[in-house]
Amino acid sequence: MSVSTLLENWSDYRHLHPVDDVPHNPYKWAMSIDLDACSGCNACSVACYAENNLPVVGREKFAHGQAMHWMRIERYWDEDISAPGGRDFPDQGAQFLPMMCQQCEAAPCETVCPVGATNHTPDGINSQIYNRCIGSRYCSANCPYKVRYFNWYDYPTTDNVWPAEMNQQLNPDVTVRGKGVMEKCTFCIQRVTVAKNNAKTQGRLVRDGDVQTACQQACPTSAISFGNLVDPESKVYKQWKAQHVELDKEAQTKDKEEGGSDLRGYRILEELRPYPSVMYLERVRETAI
Amino acid sequence: MYRFISLSILLLGMLTATSCYAADAPQPTQMTEDDLGPAIEQPIEFPHFRHAGDRDKGGMEINCMYCHTYARRSAVAGIPPLQKCIGCHQSIESVRESPRIKKLFEYWDAKKAIPWKKVHDLPDFVRFNHERHIERFIMQQNRPFQEVCGYCHGNVKEMKVARRQKLLSMGWCVTCHQKDHLVRVADGKAIGTQAYWYSMHKPPVDASGIVKAKGPNDCSVCHK
Amino acid sequence: MMNSGFDRRDFLKVLGWGGATVALSGCGNGSVEDGKETVVSYVEAKDYVIPSISVYFNSTCAQCDAGCSITGRIREGRVLKLEGNPDSAINRGKTCGLGQAGVQHHYNPDRVREPLLRTGDKGEAISWDKAYALIAEKLNGVQGEEIAFLSGGVSGHLKVLLGNYLESLGSRNHYVYEAIAPAVLRAANQKSYGAEMPRFSINKAKVVLSFGADFLGSWISPVHFSQQYAQFRKGVDGQRGVLVQVESKMTLTGANADRWLPVRPGTEGILALGIINALGTASGDIAAAVKDYDKQRVSKDTGVSAEQIDKIAALLKARTPSLVLVGGAAEGYAHGSQNAAAINLLNHVLGNVGKTIGVPVSVPFPQMSPATGNTAALQALNNSLAAGKYKVLFSYAANPVFTAPTVMKFKDNLAKVGFKVVFAHYLDETALQADLVLPLDSALEDWGTQVPEYLAEGAQINIQQPLMEKLHENTRGMGDILLALVKQRRADAYKDFDDYYAYLRNALLQNKDALGGSGVDDDYFWNDTLSKGIVKLAGATGNLSGTASAVGLTLPPPAAADTQYPLQLIPSINASLRDGRHTNQPWLQESPDPLTTIVWDSWVEIHPKKAAELGIVEGDIVEVTGKNGSIKVQAYLFPGIHPDAISIPLGRGHEAMGRYAKGYGVNPFQILDAVFDKETGELAMHETRVKVSTTGQRVIVIKDEGPVGGKQMGRKIAVRVPSNKIDLSKEI
């Protein structure tokens, strides 16, 4: 194959999964997060702990950077705050960013797993198979968002992680991970599977609203939308369309167009070409005051 | 040459060490040539042949799903609640005093659940959904239920206490998932895109419009 | 390790050959355990119970007073996860992080499981019969006025039963105490609007001006207000709502503001009058009152520039209706009531009353309406305890030994009570001082009714029902305990009720018609009520009758500088930890503080300029000393605070309450000065003045943000777009 063909079709080769000629049919799960609505309250993060059997690692391990929060809220200040010549006070507030696995279409983590423990489902989720993982941690080294978390310790047998009675809270639909295994946000695939199962029994496809991720369900401001990007009735489809964000482009068409910057939708670190499935809506900086 | 030998010894040593570690991991239960599971002792020796067996062999030909009723609507087939046994047995005078039935009623009177031992166990990281298999093979393909249940569970209607008959390993499951099965066809057309919701491959549609599809081969369908 | 002349090809050759060996040595189905696991089937199963399919029950979240309704997901008889109940007008299917952690309150390994007879540091487990007998014995011969009952806020039938019990004892000494309560606000609202808690419609406002009201975090009903906030941002008539937050220390809501204005601590009322002056629309006594509050004076007093004051006034004029809210400005100061009165006046001047400040609705059963807590109750109780007034004290849902400032000497005064009974879930600081500790059912195991203080759209009574069987055999529901106690005094009146469940059921059925159950039979109504988890009612409408008057409004000048104690301590309220009652829930300990991202520990926020002055860097252990004590805590440089203030979060610093709470952080409640709001007697939380000195020790602050401290280093990660560049009406 010639170099020119390669370059022309680069984005196709990079992100078309081995699903023959029917990628993302009939589901492609995607998310959209409105940063203007996100208040930074951390309800989504705690809900994720509850739903996915996340271990509480405790003070010392947190200090070593070994926290396991699949969904984390990052807090940013404007660049000039407390900088020389800049503002003394963050008089336009802070900026909160919920960050979790972006379920990249061309995930940098999938290609480097030595044993193939992480791969892409036909419905567009980056899957993590715990019992296959041998703990090389190459995937988390490659992840540009740093949303992969490694079980450095055997949390099920560690004191005070799940002591008696607290272990009754564990969700049986999600594996409890042992030592040496990588984990990350799965778009609550266990809930998606239940929804697909119920829909299939009824002879239909999953409708918008049938399945909510734990973070979406908890969020008090409804900043998170989750759904099927292939379903034209779904909220997520409509949002992505209204924002002119295209899943399979790293340089959005709208950025080259007139008035493209009027739209708030964007994806993070798009230029690295992972084709993430999460669209963020920019927070608005009020000019009236 | 010497380089090769010293390197081999080094690597062999490392690999042996790793194998030793692997050897300390729990070994699978002793397999016979037929991949038969171990004979497991249950609190009450429940005779499947009496209940599910053919009438000419003294059985009552009860449908598997009369007792294991959740199979058609849940991921687990379920062991029936004690209430189901008592439902019939409270009226069967002829066996009321036999030792096993007496034991049954002891549990019932004490309102104590019978602690059955699990015969068909899958690892905790595996999700197996009975409902989907019942839906496909019994409801859609109209195969006889004993054939469908028996494919994985063996000839239960001739067993006393159930005993695992098949390997139930991932490879064994995948072998079946790689076979082409007829998907429900109405008016010669496949219904929606249901045929390949879980599969990585688009199924072939032959000239008469009949669709055959493989089972899901996406890891996350079975791995939690 | 490699010899020189080593050939890569040789290495790979050997590796390939060796690798095959490992593959053969095998990994079988190692985690399959045939015949080892037990399958415990049901004895008699309800027909909705299908193994592996979840069952959902509705109940009420009890983690704070907002009264959100929850739906619990139950698998095989265990509650696994809590979600919001979509039918509640308060939370509409949403929950906050604190609500999610409710399962950790229930499954907490440090719950008290037996009635404990305590002597000194030891507790001896005794039977319930013995415990009840002991109570009867200790009450024998004691007069009603020598008995007191301390509780947190209570409502619903528990409040009724509690009242009946006290009446049977002949005691009127019910102290309702909440360490963090909007009590000054309630009194101010009553005066300004004629209602303690009118309806706030953030979603109808075009501008929200909040004086320290953390409505997205911990103020009154945060899940409800968060939803209103989301609508507010989408815009009324296509115009996005603008949030201006004025406070001395940035709260979560402040972090979301379009304009955050650091104000000199205590001067919020002055700023409010300054804005009324700048608006120029007031008349009569209000105009007279604000005459002297011109921009220059106000700017000097508060630290908010004249330009900003003009901008705010212009914005409020241009976009109506607006909404002005009061939070810390009220609760923080000795002149808090005056602050609140001045700020509430703004709503009158702007014409918001009747628009975004609406008529409240209440449940038409006043006996069930909440008895709200405040800190004046603590003061009153403490004084009585000091005078040795009480021989018997009961305590429920309060932890004053932890939350009372040390200067009040509450623990010592408590020791003067002959017999102390604490109803507790955990052995917290107060329970450790008890003579008898009675273990409670968790909120997820118990029956009850609850009426929230802040009712959203219509009136509702929240139902609390068990989401699963009791975890521990010997815990009891508070209602059951009270019923047993009241039966000791009035056996006949309650003889028809075997337990609290029977009492509740009877109480609700008796009012079936008023509760929307007319025409259906009792069983149907009861089951339907439990199934829904909420009883919605036509509420009794209140009225907004307060006066828009500035008569009697006097604001003190800004506090003079104190050279000995130059900084003002502002204890901050974290939405999850609050007054420390949930610190033993590990998810909350590990959930990073939204503003500092610090976990599992306390910190003191110092403005970077002030820190530079004092020679403090991040991680320095500093000693914060006030008149009434000192604490040592790690320093964190935080730009969102007034340079004359420092802030330490409340809720940590437990000395008891289990493995996840004990020993983490420091407790700023301890060093608070005993300063009280002049009008209401509420503890003025921000009036403590301190000095900060380094100790020479330094630690690494354990936080979630990286060492860069929240900067994006020029990358487009979390992006903002100016509002005049976008058109929100095009969005979904």
What can be said about this structure in brief?
Chain A is 21% helix and 14% strand. Chain A is of the alpha+beta class and 289 residues long. In chain A, the strands form four sheets. Chain A has a four-stranded mixed sheet with strand order 8-1-10-9. Chain A has a two-stranded antiparallel ribbon with strand order 2-3.
Distance between the termini of chain B: 49 Å
Question: What best-fitting shape of chain A do the alpha-carbon axes yield?
Answer: globular
Number of domains of chain A: 1
- Low-confidence parts of chain B: 20-32, 190-197
Distance between the termini of chain A: 57 Å
Write the H/E string of chain B, N to C. Answer: HHHHHEHHHEEEEH
What name does CATH use for the topology of chain A? Answer: Alpha-Beta Plaits
Element string of chain A (H = helix, E = strand): HHEHHEEEEHEEHHEHHEEE
Number of domains of chain B: 2
Strand percentage of chain B lies at under 5%
Oligomerization category of the chains in this entry: heterotrimer
Helical proportion of chain A, percent range: 10-25%
Number of beta strands of chain B: 5
Question: Would you spell out the secondary-structure blueprint of this structure?
Answer:
The complex is a heterotrimer of chains A (289), B (224) and C (732).
Chain A: H1 3-8, H2 10-15, E1 29-34, H3 43-51, H4 59-63, E2 72-76, E3 95-99, E4 118-120, E5 126-128, H5 138-142, E6 149-150, E7 182-183, H6 189-201, H7 214-218, E8 224-228, H8 235-242, H9 253-256, E9 265-266, E10 278-281, E11 283-285
Chain B: H1 2-24, H2 48-52, H3 64-67, H4 82-89, H5 99-109, E1 115-117, H6 130-140, H7 145-153, H8 170-177, E2 181-182, E3 185-186, E4 189-190, E5 212-213, H9 219-222
Antiparallel strand pairs in B: 2-5, 3-4
Helix pairs in contact in B: 4-5
Chain C: H1 8-25, E1 38-40, E2 55-60, E3 69-75, E4 78-84, H2 97-100, H3 102-106, E5 116-119, E6 122-125, H4 128-139, E7 147-151, H5 156-169, E8 174-176, H6 183-193, E9 199-200, E10 207-211, H7 222-234, E11 242-247, H8 252-255, E12 259-262, H9 268-279, H10 284-290, H11 295-302, H12 306-318, E13 322-326, H13 328-331, H14 336-349, E14 357-358, E15 361-362, H15 376-386, E16 392-396, H16 400-403, H17 410-414, E17 419-424, H18 429-432, E18 436-439, E19 448-450, E20 459-464, H19 478-489, H20 500-510, H21 522-532, E21 534-537, E22 540-541, E23 567-572, H22 586-590, E24 604-606, H23 608-614, E25 620-626, E26 629-637, E27 645-649, E28 688-698, E29 720-722
Parallel strand pairs in C: 7-8, 7-16, 10-11, 10-13, 11-12, 16-17, 17-18, 23-27, 24-26
Antiparallel strand pairs in C: 2-3, 3-4, 5-6, 5-18, 9-14, 15-22, 19-20, 20-21, 23-28, 25-26, 25-28
